Amino acid sequence: MARRRKPGGRARGGPGSRHADRADRRSGGGRQPRRQPRLGTPGRPDAAHVHRRSAGHPQSHGPELGLDRVLAAGARRLGLRRLHRYAARGPGPRGRRAHRPYPRHGAAVAHPRRGLRPGRRLSALPAGDAARADGAGGLAPPRPRHRRKPGHGARRVQRHARRPWHAGHERAVVHARAAATRPGRYRRRPARGARRLRRGRLLARRGGRHDHHARSAHPARLVGGTRHRLAHSAGPARPRRQRRRAAARPRRRPRAAFASHGPRGRRAARRAAAGGLAALRVVRALPAHARAHGRPGRRAGPAEPARHHRHASELAPAPSAGQPRVLRRPRRAFAAGGDPGRPEPAVSAPRATARLQLHAGYTLDDARARVDYYADLGVSHLYLSPITRARAGSTHGYDVIDHATVNPELGGEPALRRLAQAARRRGLGLIADIVPNHMAADPANPWWRDVLARGEASAWSRHFDIDWQPPDPALRGKVLLPVLAEPYGDALANGSLRLLVDPASDQAELETPGGRYPVASASLPRGVAAQDLAALHDPSTQTGCERLHALLERQHYRLAWWRTAPDQINWRRFFEISELVGVRVEDEGVFDAVHALALRLYAEGILDGLRIDHIDGLASPGAYLRRLDRRLAEAGAARPAACAQAQAYVVVEKILAPGEVPDPRWRMDGTTGYDFMDQVGALLHSPAAEAPLQAFWQDVSGDKRPARTQLVAARRRMLTRHFAAERLALVRSLERIARLDARSRDWSANAIDRVLSALLAAFPVYRSYAEDGGRGAADRRACRLARRRAAVLLAARPGSADATLLAQLDRWLDGADPLPPDARASEARALALRRFQQLTPPLAAKSLEDTLLYRYGPLLSRNEVGASPDEFALAPEAFDARVRARALAYPRAMLATATHDHKRGEDARARLAVLSEMPQAWREAATRWLQAMPGRGAPSAADRYLLLQTLVGAWPADWDADRCARPDAALAQWLERIAEWQLKALREAKLHTSWTDPDPAYEAAARALVGSLQDAPAGRALLGAIAGFASGLAPAGMINSFAQTLLRNTLPGVPDLYQGTELWDFSLVDPDNRRPVDYARRDAALARARSAPEADLSASAWRDGSVKLMLIQRLLAARARLPPLFAEGNCVALPVHGPRAGHALAWLRRHEGLSALIVAPRLSALALSGYAAGQPALARGYWENTTLRLPPPVAGGAWHDAVHGRRTHVSADGSVALADVLRELPVALCLSVRS
């Protein structure tokens, strides 16, 4: 069926559409686009394809619209790829237009009170204007000091510019000024900063029609996507002499401003292009709901291929037929940091982030002191741990007690503003971690305290996920408070519970060893003075103890022993932590209360993006992200002009199973990088080592079960002993559904529990996302796999009762509405689905990350957050497929190799990965050391083997093995860290001891084993042997470290640097990975790296880690110099030829004449260890006769090594010898810039 065309346009996708035009131009046939007007010298090659669009399209994003056509035509005329680097000037000789370079910083603004201000710079305003805001240090637009006297046409411009606009306008209005002014028109010199506004009028259009009713209170903003480029196109005000000369030249006809879409707007654009466009000024931004590309407010994902959007000033050619189309987000300009006297660098979209862990010992002011360091290192954004108020003394910030306040222990909001100002001065942005899923269940939390005091009648009772009607009558209308260190009766009898009266508030409180809790005023006896309450309820007397017990029974909470939580808890916790209570952000009012601070800080230009903690804990992650996207868009509409950005940067903490991808319905930029950390780690492991290492582990541990079987056992334990209350609540919800239908009412709670437990134990991913009408395709695949595995666990043959019930449970939990429609059934199904989807994430995390990965250890480098025991190694082809998938769906996703949650440092994992290249030698060495360890009882052989791997991986690179013969304080401190790791590992494994049931004797024996490595002569000899092996392995580990560092900083995505890991990172699990960072040492290393003309590749530089910092700094410098290449360039794997082809990885990234060649080694760390020993000539020979070939388009030209600083030789046929590329270092990033 033929598609109907809109008037003046074409049907999308049909013959003659802009998509068909693109294909026709590539193929050389078919309908050709209309010839575009050109400016300047003819004959220059096109810099972009310009497409037409239907007149009625409501947005102005694509390169085919009016404003963009002018830019494209002008750029083709000039042969430019980036218009924003040049400023249009007056007519030159022979009718040619002269252009000159112009600085990028200091974007011009259009002031809401002064009208159009072309060329005006925020940083050039009078003192105090740029810093004006609602509070000190704010980033609001400047306040005007002078008012230019309008005259003639300028009066019309000012009148229209001062008129408020309606926030719903879906257009960008641009003012076009003619190349020369009419002689004698203006005789009065205008006010400073407004000299080039000569004539023109503002045309406000809606769909090509005049709109005289537009209204808005928002200040003027620059258009997203063309913002900071177009802001420089007019150049500075010319001196009076030049203005006189311009006035004497032949007059050009002035052109009116034009709307950027609609037929009239396009005609105005063509007229302006033909007559000579001297200046473009954007005076109004897109509204909040039209900022996203594609559909309004929509982010493209794998399920909806992104349209090929290019921003007007990028003028990039259309992609080739085989090139995937990726959603590009606009770059952004940011406000000055409170210093109006100096230009402030503009901050783009995140180019590279640095994660900082904030706490009372490292505040926002401490982070401000490190702004220069991170700016010099090359990051673009500081990525902060939670900044909201947390419990006193919190070391991580995830135990929030007040979402509306910046943590005073961090310095409060003034310190945050100071940090934002300092960051803006160096061109850095801020990203903050927010915690919407939970809060601290602490009396210091005012919401929680009010719930404890008032119960279900509290205004905050709906903010928390509390079941007020549990099956236990003693808990109905109450909150279980499992905070007592001993059973309730014992605590009451021994006086641990006392009633006190706060003298400041004259309010009664209950004092417990864990804190003070409120007492409901209605529960107190009447007629008793406040000062007499304590004596009346004194637990030291029998009568007082009885009165106190009766008083506690009348409270809205029930005090209980902490061990009751797994079985009786009636509110949702974070994982199994009873100190953190779940928050119902699915409720709109709760959402607004939780996000008010973050949205305000984003609206004020303080924050530029958010990291969403534990997205899987929310009831409906997709709906949450849609609401957050809308709220951020609304807040973004109020951002200061110089901080305007099309969208906030949003990433989510999400653990992906092998083969799993994020839900394509989510509106986000990607994940926080756990998936990349797992993939790049698996890439560096040899698949041939999996079988021998597993066999050795089975011999040592005595457990022959495969990892999958052990994981199921761990899940069953967690369901039975740690999540019993949550499991039984889900069973009750499913039983209620069964009772509502006569066909299913005979299924008992016990049967449902048995089958449900098998389904939960077999669930292959963290959770399903059955919302918006049901499951997606990925959910359906995961649930089918879960049913098959559950049937095996149940031994349920097809047609059996268990198989039938399993299928029934799957239908109840699929998210679809019941048939026939039934309100009660729909409500019951929604509750059951929510409980199911909020139970599987903590079950998966606690079973795998916090249980199996501490008890299963063939090779600890593969036991990491985000990893799976089913995937030991990853082939290059599989790794490249995941790189390309991420680049297509989430090109701005974070790439991480270290986080605040990792189990061991990135360089410790890289060193242990070398063992996969030498499994037999490792097995022999480990066997000798296990036999040399003292004692044969506790700890077990498996725990000893895990200790050996940890000692080898964590041994400092700059320590010699001789240190073991002369123990010192540093060695003692290092061994203490090892002992703390071991204690946590033993308890998390839950085999011989645990957090809930510790075994002091076993733990003491394990600690004694670590202590013997320093105290006993035999132990020191054993540690010396282990240290000698680790020192010999260290250079090879550094080769792997270089490979993963290169890939993190060059492949598609946003590289994330965890604090302190720019030097060697051999840290252990938290809290060890959150130790203070030695910034003085890093400052010195960075200063040397930036000042040295050549990289220091000596053996000492490798040992102290400064060579790694040098690599990071130079890679980030390359990203800063060529941001479009790394943000938008495609990424294609190159084949390698020769005897070492299987040990080299190569990718080519290209974008608009820019190219990057990425080369890294794989499974050759031992052979290349000469690089890290300061002997590159020994390692270089490994690459003899091994080459890669560049494709013809980039084969010629000059290539430059961005790391080592030398020129790379490329043969005429495009072949590159790896011995030349990897001459001095084991990795290479070679750049080529072709004009």
From TrEMBL:
State the SUPFAM superfamilies in the record: (Trans)glycosidases
Segment Disordered: which positions?
1-66, 85-112, 128-273, 288-327
Residue spans of biased composition, Basic residues class = 94-103, 143-166, 184-218, 238-255
- Highest taxon of source: Bacteria
Residues forming the Glycosyl hydrolase family 13 catalytic domain are 332-797
A GO biological process held by the record? alpha-glucan catabolic process
| Transmembrane feature ranges | none
Q: Where is the composition biased (Basic and acidic residues)?
A: 18-27
What the entry lists under PANTHER family is as follows: ALPHA-AMYLASE FAMILY MEMBER (PTHR10357), MALTOOLIGOSYL TREHALOSE SYNTHASE-RELATED (PTHR10357:SF216)
The name on file for this protein is Malto-oligosyltrehalose synthase
